[in-house]
Design brief:
Elements (H helix, E strand, L loop, with lengths): L2 H4 L5 E7 L3 H12 L4 E4 L11 E4 L2 E4 L5 E2 L9 H9 L5 E4 L1 E6 L2 E6 L2 H10 L3 H21 L13 H5 L3 H6 L1 H6 L4 H5 L6 H15 L8 H11 L6 E4 L3 H14 L3 E3 L4 E7 L2 E7 L4 E10 L3 H7 L7 H8 L6 E10 L10 E5 L12 E5 L13 E12 L12 H19 L9 E7 L1 H7 L28 E3 L10 H15 L2 H10 L5
Parallel strand pairs: 1-2, 1-13, 2-10, 7-15, 13-19
Antiparallel strand pairs: 3-4, 5-9, 6-9, 7-8, 11-12, 12-13, 14-17, 14-18, 15-16, 16-17
Length: 523
């Protein structure tokens, strides 16, 4: 029996979104706002993908992102802020500006903002680096302005872009020389200015946190946007009250506010394609759901190809999407600890670099620490803290491939590979093991299992100047993609941008322009 003959009344939607990551929720909620009947299918029991939250013994944990910025300000150019504005939903934001650095040069605390970092350089005995940092600020100023000259909310991946770009043409034309420079690797911008070894390492680190790649592989636009955001006067970092799960819940609220529907435990087994036209999806439980306008896959490129029936899409398309080089995976420690006696001025975020010579992308060389209950005490029981420690995209998948998650080899490797995170955290809280109440270790297999991620990766490792992200369109009519496989950058701004672009590639131009006016992005 064909898939078409298995559908039943009530199974038809305009748009079906596969996956409820931030990109998928963004695309689905915006299309619901435009009046489409939208269904978001999520395989997990909770929405959010890599950004979901979970509870253990009274502790509330973030599964993935821990660093947020440009979200408390309604006028921020952050694409996710534009999404929240468009959906007319929001949540509480907690602000701070200090984070701890544990580097080969020693430990110090730094703040977002250009001037304070000059004080750090002086304290490290690098006065010559101060002048170079100031010069880089000067060089980046026009690039930063160019990076926000065109709101992400104005982009779409079809001919309608000529109409949605028209209101921004004067400022784009005035910024044209800088816009062209934004497409280069960041190293081509920074290397002529920065010769100090510490500063070069620092910029590699910042690039790595944004893209998973060093300065040579990171597109200059990503760093220019960061300079526009992190080094403006009075800047603060943000944290969502309730954790990343509360942010996801807000996006779900936006989806449902405009009539969209979220179904969890609705794992998609196959994308229904006939004569190179997407018709809907088939779920693991046998249900077949029709999509009369489009299917949007928020699954990774590798996982999307696996959902296509044999023969759907050209061999070249399938080969390209299935062989994109993946970033490595993550290791995680989720800990609940007793907080009695800890320094009340402890920074809520810390970064540890073990060895500059190894390179910032070396396995387990960089470790991030988040203690969000310092900002939001509701994330932990009284007199306790919630802690998330992770190796950000530098855990190789190879040692884990094929291991039985219930076998001793897996458990031994898990304990062994977690040590670098314990050691990093002990630089911040030396007696942390004596304070434990909850301890969970996540591995690349955990990612692959709960996030349905190919090799547990967070996205492709595509070097600027050598490869391009494919964008939302596919050669299969009615099939679009969003998420970290389609737009450069790692983290929430990039995936929110991908969802915006996918939604606007479908939405009528007139409605798109009306929304831009409503958001006061055009007069």
């Amino acid at each position: 029996m064909s898939i078409a003959h298995q559908t039943t009344a009530g199974d038809s939607w305009d748009i079906i979104v596969i996956g409820s990551g931030v990109g998928g929720l963004t695309a689905g909620a915006l299309l619901a706002r435009y009046g489409y009947r939208v269904l978001v299918c999520e395989a997990h029991s909770v929405p959010g993908g890599a950004a979901h939250g979970f509870d253990r013994s009274g502790f509330r944990f973030d599964s993935g992102p821990s660093l947020f910025s440009g979200l408390a300000d309604r006028h921020s150019p952050n694409p996710l802020r534009q999404v929240l504005n468009a959906l007319e939903v929001d949540l509480g934001w907690l602000q701070y500006n200090t984070w701890g650095c544990h580097l080969p040069e020693g430990h110090f605390e730094t703040e977002v903002g250009a001037d304070q970092f000059c004080e750090v350089l002086q304290a490290l005995g690098r006065p010559e680096a101060v002048a170079q940092w100031r010069e880089l600020q000067r060089v980046m100023e026009p690039l930063a302005a160019a990076s926000v000259a065109l709101p992400t909310a104005a982009l779409r991946w079809n001919s309608g872009i000529f109409q949605t770009l028209t209101p921004f043409l004067p400022q784009l034309l005035s910024q044209l020389p800088q816009v062209q420079r934004l497409t280069r690797p960041f190293s081509q911008i920074s290397d002529p200015v920065i010769t100090d070894p510490f500063l070069r390492n620092w910029l590699d680190l910042l690039c790595y946190l944004l893209s998973g790649l060093p300065a040579q592989g990171t597109i200059a636009a990503e760093m220019a946007f960061m300079f526009a955001d992190w080094y403006r006067p009075g800047v603060q970092l943000d944290y969502p009250k309730g954790g990343s799960g509360a942010l996801v819940a807000t996006l779900v609220r936006g989806l449902e506010k405009w009539g969209g529907v979220l179904r969890c435990r609705a794992s998609v087994a196959e994308i229904w394609v006939e004569r190179n036209q997407t018709r809907g999806v088939k779920l693991q439980n046998g249900e077949v759901l029709e999509a009369t306008t489009a299917v949007i896959s928020n699954a990774s490129s590798w996982d999307t190809v696996k959902l296509l029936p044999e023969g759907a899409g050209s061999p070249r398309f399938r080969q390209h999407r299935s062989t994109l080089p993946p970033c490595p995976s993550f290791m995680h420690l989720h800990l609940g600890i007793r907080a009695t006696g800890l320094d009340p001025n402890l920074a809520c975020h810390h970064i540890v670099v073990n060895d500059w010579a190894a390179g910032v992308t070396a396995p387990q060389n960089v470790v991030l620490i988040s203690i969000p209950s310092l900002l939001d005490p509701d994330l932990a029981p009284p007199d306790c803290h919630t802690i998330h420690v992770y190796t950000p995209g530098n855990e190789p998948y190879g040692p884990w491939a094929g291991l039985d998650r219930n076998g001793p080899a897996y458990q031994n490797l898990k304990a062994q590979r977690a040590q670098v995170m314990w050691q990093a955290l002990e630089r911040v809280i030396p007696d942390v093991r004596d304070r434990l109440q909850v301890s969970l270790v996540g591995t690349p297999l955990t990612h692959a299992r709960f996030l349905r991620r190919h090799q547990g990766s967070y996205g492709p490792a595509l070097w600027a100047g050598q490869s391009q992200f494919p964008g939302p369109k596919t050669p299969i009519q009615g099939l679009l993609c969003c998420g970290d496989s389609t737009f450069p950058g790692i983290g929430l701004p990039a995936v929110a941008a991908s969802g915006l672009i996918a939604a606007h590639t479908i939405a009528p131009v007139a409605q798109h322009l009306t929304l831009l006016k409503r958001l006061s992005l055009i007069p």
